[in-house]
Amino acid sequence: MSSSENSSDNSQQQPNCKKSSYRKSFSQEFEQLLNVEICPTLWVAVHKSRSSQGSMFVDIRRKKEGQWRGSKIYIPTTQGLFLKYPEYEKLKQKFEDWLSGLLLAETMEKVFEFSELTGRTVFAQQVIGAKGLTVGLKTETKQSCLVLHRSEITKIISNSVADAIGAAMCQSLYD
Question: Which residue, 76, 119, 121, is CA-closest to 94?
């Protein structure tokens, strides 16, 4: 076997190694600070980046096979929202406005859309025939969406969940 054939075999094996290390890198890159069950299939988690900046993320997603091991979440998904904390704060305010009736939409038109951080857009559309919203996050490379019912939105923005998120973030600053 020639050396050029050997190098092509190695290059074909490399992508597989990268894929498996990518899946492990989520738990290596982020520390989970909090995991709150909103309902049996919906969870809110708070993650802190292990980088020197220590950015905080609020992760809202449905519980699905392969994403969870015990109470730890591993892989970001297209079926949830992985929001930076300023985006979560603004989304929470938009949810409050929607629940109070300040934001109304009778069709599938966008209820709201905002871009708190460059390259990331959070949006919501009214779900026809149901009392809820399809909430999504668009970046330059991907999009994720999640359908939330009115009762789930109410729980996500409740004082107890907001206080738990705030406490987890404060605790991580003091650790």
Answer: 121
d(CA 149, CA 146): 10
Whole-angstrom distance, CA of residue 134 vs CA of residue 27: 28
CATH code for the domain in which residue 150 is found? 3.30.2450.30
Cβ pair 148, 157 in contact under 8 A: no
Q: pLDDT in tens for each of the 175 residues of the chain?
A: 544 444 444 444 333 333 333 444 566 677 778 888 888 888 888 888 877 677 888 888 887 655 655 555 555 567 788 888 889 999 999 999 888 876 665 444 668 888 888 889 999 988 876 688 899 999 888 888 899 999 999 999 998 888 888 888 787 666 6
Q: With H, G, I as helix, E, B as strand and everything else as coil, classify residue 147.
A: strand
Rounded Cα–Cα distance for residues 48 and 155 (Å): 22
Structural domain including 37 reads 3-174
Nearest-CA neighbor of 31 among 137, 169, 143?
Answer: 169
Domain count, the chain: 1
